[in-house]
Structure formats: C-alpha cells, structure tokens
Design brief:
6 helices, 17% strand, 4-stranded antiparallel beta sheet, 8 strands, 31% helix, binds zinc ion, 2 domains, Zincin-like, alpha+beta, 4-stranded mixed beta sheet
C-alpha cells in the first residue's frame, strides 16, 4: 500500500477560513471518477478499481494487492482538473512500476512518461483542508492540526522556543476547548510550565 502523495508535515500557519485558490474550477466527484476511470483504462489498468476515500491530507493512494486506486473525496472536490489528473497519474505510475519502487527514479520516469510531474508531494499551492483543531496565539496567528495537541505549544511565529506568553489556545470544529478538556496530561504540562515560570 502506498500512501505517499501527501504533504510534508504541514505546520505552516493558515489564515482562518480561507481555502486559498480552491474554488477556481473544481470538479464534481462523478467527473473525478470518470476522469480517473478513463485514465486507468488508457494506461492498461482496466481491471483496477477507482474509489473515493475520506483522507484529508493524502490526495491519492495506490493499493497494488487489491488493484485499487483511491482518491480523497475532500481534496478532489477542491482540486482543479489538472490537479485531479496529476493525482490520478501519480497513482497510475505507482500501479505500473509496482509499489516497491516508492518514489524512486523508476517511478519518476514512469510518472513523467505518462504526463505527470513526477513530484512526490502535492504542490504547496494546491488547496488543502484545515485540520479540525485550530490553535491561536494571543497575537492572532493560527495553526491547524488534524489531531488533538498532546502538549502545550506556543506560537512558532512569535517565538522560536516555547514561551508561555505565546501559548496557543485551541478550538475543535470551531468550539473552544479548555486545557482540562484537551486532557489530563496536557493540563499537567501546562501547570508545570506556569509554575516553572513563577
Ligand atoms: Zn506516491
Ligand atoms: Zn503568534
């Protein structure tokens, strides 16, 4: 199973509520599936299945064993046709050379031969989904995460190392979550940081 076509750990702050250039000309999901089907057929993968999944960071996945390519419904709904095509061709290249090649030069050559970029990661300008967890510092900088923070974090834009005065406070799905609600370990670490500073 290859699940490589995702972003590098994306910790960059994102502006609240924006989706970048998401809505230029995104495709409807049935069109995405039709395009993927056509491309698979065209490259001799008529016996492969294509489906949608709920991944939020990874755009596509290629499962060699079950002969399935699966695409993120969330990201495909945001991508323009070229980005969808790139995602599908990326996975087709995996299917053609075999998962053992990962993103090595053999895969890159195959990807480029069928019209993909041969890049391992989604380009930084591609639309992305915000994580459910949004942390905000006192100055208003925001970061988002897919998962609950395990330890207190301070704003990387305000301070390169942990500083209580730049602590991020968290919302999940838009509702504020207190340190106690985040978890016992989290609150404990925060208490410690507060006592150490005093
Ligand atoms: Zn890949
Ligand atoms: Zn900040």
């Amino acid at each position: 199973m290859l699940a490589h076509w995702s972003r590098a750990q994306d910790r960059a702050p994102v502006a609240c509520g924006t989706r970048g250039t998401a809505t230029i000309a995104s495709m409807l999901l049935p069109e995405v599936l039709r395009l993927a089907r056509a491309l698979l057929d065209q490259h001799g993968l008529g016996h492969w299945e294509v489906s949608l999944d709920s991944a939020r960071r990874r755009a596509g996945r290629c499962d060699e064993r079950s002969h399935k390519v699966s695409l993120s419904r969330h990201l495909m709904a945001l991508y323009d046709p070229d980005q969808v095509r790139e995602t599908v061709l990326h996975e087709i290249a995996h299917a053609l050379v075999g998962a053992r090649h990962g993103h090595d030069p053999v895969w890159v050559a195959q990807a480029q031969a069928i019209g993909a970029s041969g890049q391992r990661l989604v380009p930084p300008q591609a639309p992305r989904l915000k994580g459910r967890w949004v942390g905000r510092c006192p100055a208003g900088h925001e970061v988002d995460r897919l998962r609950r923070p395990s330890v207190p974090l301070s704003c990387a834009r305000c301070s390169p190392s942990f500083r209580l005065e730049h602590l991020l406070s968290w919302c999940c799905d838009g509702s504020p979550v207190s340190p106690a609600q985040i978890g016992a370990a989290y609150s404990h670490r925060l208490e410690l940081a507060r006592t150490t500073r005093a």
